[in-house]
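== Folding task for one protein ==

=== Format: two labelled lines per protein ===

==== Paired sequence and structure tokens ====
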Amino acid sequence: MASPPAATDPRPESVPTSRLHGVAVGDRVFRAVLTLAALSVPVLLGFLAWELITGSRLAIEKYGLRFLTTSVWDPVADQFGALPLVFGTLISSLVALIIAVPLAVGVAIYLTEFAPRAVRQPIGYVVELLAAVPSVVYGLWGIFFLIPVLRSTLFPFLKSVLGWLPFFQGPVYGPSMLAAGILLAIMIMPYIMSVSREVLLAVPGSQREAALALGATRWEAARSAVVPYARSGIIGAVILGLGRALGETMAVTMVIGNRHDISASLFAPGYTMAAAIANEFAEAATDIHFASLAYVALVLFGVTVLVNAMARLLIWRVSRGRPSGGATL
């Protein structure tokens, strides 16, 4: 009589305890490393703010908030006021956004919704290549090509057509606030285009299909279904470009004219906070001059933090606190 088959054990083979222990230790080490890396960001930010406050303490004690409301910048007489620097930084960045945002978002919409496949990759590659060009190269291009062209063509045209506005009055110098704004627009467009393109590509295909199924054209589908879905991500891309424009140094220094003055005309030279720090930091001969430049850096740091905080609030309000296209930005 044949013996019955041996019963098989349904339980899976047990994993050695030492192996499980090693995996747990590795996970804990990896988690600890990531936690330290995450905590290092606010710590470094705090050290940066502390160093700026310490370096500018002498100017803060002497000028206080009056530093931001006065226009005199005289290192010989130890008199410093940063209002023209703040004005130049904000106006040049605003001009850059006015020019760059419609072009960049329009190109991003074209690449994702209308461009043939044979065109998308080459243009996307060129856009990413533009973002990698050093700012000093943009500055040299602005000096030798952009300013002569603007001075001989665009600036006289704007003065003849829009000369009744205070923004386009006065003599045409070449190096000016408008030239800096145009150059900044060229520099920040690749960032806005790249991020906006990725956000639009992340929109689910069901959004487009639903709009097309209801009888919308491709343009109507993009305008009414795709862009609203990705609006928070597009806003994030715009703020990324604004942050680049606020902190840009070399290219702006080379085309803005570097005149410590406030003028309503965009044809007039101006000055920015980053340009002033780059031009004068190595030549600061007195403690109050050095402290004033550190105070300017502290103000620029504060403006950048404030802009990013307002951007996060704006993105949250646009998306109404719910995840949407590009919400991770």
Notes: Strands lie at 73-74, 79-80. The radius of gyration is 27 Å. The longest strand covers residues 73-74.
